[in-house]
Specification:
By secondary structure, this protein is of the alpha/beta class. The chain has 7 helices and 10 strands. The strands form 2 sheets. Strands 6-7-8-3-9-10 form a 6-stranded mixed sheet. The protein is globular, with a radius of gyration of 17 Å. It starts with a strand and ends with a strand. Bound molecules: adenosine-5'-triphosphate. The site of adenosine-5'-triphosphate has 12 residues, from strand 1, strand 2 and helix 1.
Amino acid sequence: MVRAVLQLKGVERHYEQAERRLTILNGADFSLHAGEMVALVAPSGTGKSTLLHTAGLLERPDGGDVVLAGRACGRLSDDNRTAIRRNDIGFVYQFHHLLPEFSALENVMMPQLIKGLSRGEAAERAAQLLDYMQIGKRATHRPSELSGGEQQRVAIARAVANAPLVLLADEPTGNLDPVTASYVFQALEALVRQSGLAALIATHNHELASRMDRRVTLAEGRVVPL
Ligand SMILES: Nc1ncnc2c1ncn2[C@@H]1O[C@H](COP(=O)(O)OP(=O)(O)OP(=O)(O)O)[C@@H](O)[C@H]1O
């Protein structure tokens, strides 16, 4: 049986809004397996970002837990969750959030330098990843000198720079035109398949969702098949 790299077990998330309690995740269960790409497709405001942030240990669940490679992590301290996140989880957002004063190569090197790799090792891996994302020729360019699709390719390379177990993406192509979105997704897919990563990708794009292994949605705070 393929092992679950990421599990949500009865996860609850509530927000206090204008003196009322808003329940976003209400006992959400979900398993993501090694090598799998899963699309999270749900209407705006139903909790996709909340789910990704909780799964990615950015936010703590109010109930239940997040299990990463068999280890219960969701309820750990902020410091412990941050340490685990740095090693084991890659994030891609709708907007690239690249550091504007650094080149594409340096942006991809950054997480590796923070982890403690030497500049030489980090530069070598960053160059390989940029080549893999078919943007190697742009390695010395700053984000402002790149197109939206190129910026997202760099952001994806950065997200996997530390060889995480899990890639979480929140509308990674949401800011791109359909043709560019399709090419960027193709590169993302090739990278995920080649590295054996597990990926959970929130998208409103049904065509891209249809290219993934399975699709889930959120209904009344739970994750259900689509
Ligand atoms: N920090 C917060 N405090 C209060 N309410 C919040 C907070 N974060 C999110 N919410 C609310 O929780 C609900 C779910 O938000 P979330 O961003 O997870 O939805 P989403 O499905 O990702 O939406 P979109 O597709 O528009 O990005 C929304 O009603 C939002 O207003």
